[in-house]
Amino acid sequence: MNRNYNIAVIPGDGTGPEVVKESIKVLKAAAGRHNFGINFYEYDFGGERYMRTGETLPEGAIDELKKFDAILLGAIGHPDVKPGILEKGILLRLRFELDQYINLRPVKLYPGVKTPLKDKGPEHIDYVVIRENTGDVYTGSGGVTMKGTPHEVAIQNMIYNRMQVDRCLKYAFEYTRKRNRKKTLALCGKTNVLTYVFDLWERAFHEMGNTLYPDIKREYYHVDATCMWMVKNPEWFDVIVTTNMFGDIITDLGAITQGGMGIAAGGNINPEGVSMFEPIGGSAPKYTGKNVINPLAAIASGAMMLEHLGEENAANAIENAIIYVTTNKIKDLSAGKMGYSTTEVGDMVAEKV
Ligand code: IPM
Ligand code: MN
User: Fold this and answer.
1) Residue 179 parent element (H or E)
2) Nearest alpha carbon to residue 306 among 322, 293, 292, 287
3) Cα–Cα distance for residue pair 227/251, rounded to 1 Å
4) CB 326 within 8 A of CB 296
């Protein structure tokens, strides 16, 4: 096995570069300790480049990125660029064109981290949301007519085909089996209203479960109820699989229950191609350049990347180092309240690794 990895890095906007720098620091420490090679190649895609050149992703960028073992992303979003341009032109384009059809978002409360959920601790909040990542209203299908008139019509379609649903469900069932905890996969949908799309999901879910995954228990929750239970009884969940838009929404809820944007990590995964790992939080313009933003989410994303590459021991070492820091050092995860600077947090994790 070739244990030398080439990683494309897109630090991006705002605090993205600061947190990515700490993630790289920790990844290098893990590589040294666990005897593998890791090389980083930086790309300047983001708001600054867009304002300079008018270009979101340059010609040939996608093909170039396909040659890497993985991509590490900081944050995309710039206060001086109209919302949607960078998100669609960079982040969503990468997800779609690299066919990263899974968005893996663990919701895990680390010891020492405060949660807004009353009477809940790390033993209650530990599950994974598998968000479908290339379909749904994100496909951009729809349009507008009679714009600006009282008759204006706006349409944005929720689109899924059987292939997209099946490949996402297969990943989710396999993931639940491999995770080997409660062996329970919950489908989160809205079968009582979205009767076409979630009929497809529900049938595919039970067909696949019955024939290929009899060892995995199946549950179903409406998305609105899912939000209630994520707050009231998060310990019920093991793995949740859901559509792109619902997954976007419930993972922000999940993130806040695990301590917020400073700690929530995610992976955009193409199991057969190149995957991209990113902290869920945004570019946080108001903290940019102050060395106060929390880099743990970016560091945890780096750990997810190593796990994906097959470096499980190194990934575990990073996770344990994060737990050491949340348990013994940082008292508050919020930017400016950590009691340590961004670089100091990176140093502490790297040292522990
Ligand atoms: C996320 C973000 C993106 C999404 C935005 C920035 C396009 O909210 O990664 O969850 O909606 O997927
Ligand atoms: Mn989101």
Assistant:
1) helix 162-179
2) 322
3) 10
4) yes
Please, what are the domains in the chain? 1-98+285-353 (3.40.718.10), 115-258 (3.40.718.10)
pTM exceeding the 0.90 threshold for the entire prediction: yes
Residue nearest to atom 11 of ligand 1 (CA): 248
Question: What percentage of the chain has pLDDT greater than the value 90?
Answer: 98
Catalytic annotation present for 252: yes
Separation of alpha carbons 8 and 236, rounded Å: 37
pLDDT digits (tens, 9 = 90+) for 145-183: 999 999 999 999 999 999 999 999 999 999 999 999 999
Task: Spell out the residues 6+ positions from residue 9 whose beta carbon is closer than 8 angstroms to its own.
Answer: 20, 24, 40, 41, 42, 43, 71, 72, 73
pLDDT tens digit sequence for 105-151 = 999 999 999 999 999 999 999 999 999 999 999 999 999 999 999 99
Alpha helices in 258-341 (DSSP H): 296-309, 312-328
Three-class SS of residue 18? Answer: helix
Mean pLDDT in the chain?
A: 97
Question: Cβ contacts of residue 207 below 8 Å, gap of 6+?
Answer: none
How far does residue 82's CA lie from ligand 2's centre (Å)? 17
Q: Is 238 a catalytic residue?
A: no
